[in-house]
User: Fold Ribonuclease HI family protein from Methanoculleus frigidifontis.
Amino acid sequence: MTTGASLSIYTDGASRGNPGAAAWAFVFVRDDTVVQTRSEYLGIATNNVAEYHAVINALAEARTYTGGAVTVYSDSELVVRQLTGRYRIRKEHLAALHREVIRHAGAFAEVSFISVPRDHPYIRVADRLCNETLDRCAGGSRRR
Assistant:
């Protein structure tokens, strides 16, 4: 781990149905180079739950890369706005996931959460990983 090195994290969650078969993914980028990707099947969940799990798992894994500054990018405006305090959290299951994100964020010198468009190149990589995971684990038609 490099304590002071910054890390950019791009996350995505997807569900086929809402709720439906769900997966999450993250892409770690340092100096414009992808240094790690990961995606896992979540089971039956909503898209918002999958988006939160992407952030949680990314932050848990990022501790092996840095203790410094981390910037988390997501195309989920809801998750980013809840994490930055702009939106209230009205559902207890999302509040519990929010608390888990905040707990993981405490491992870093600084964490920023930024909303980016769905067509951002690294978000598209994370989206592709989610869909590949869903194809492999859940099959079925593509919906997001």
About this structure: The mean pLDDT is 95.
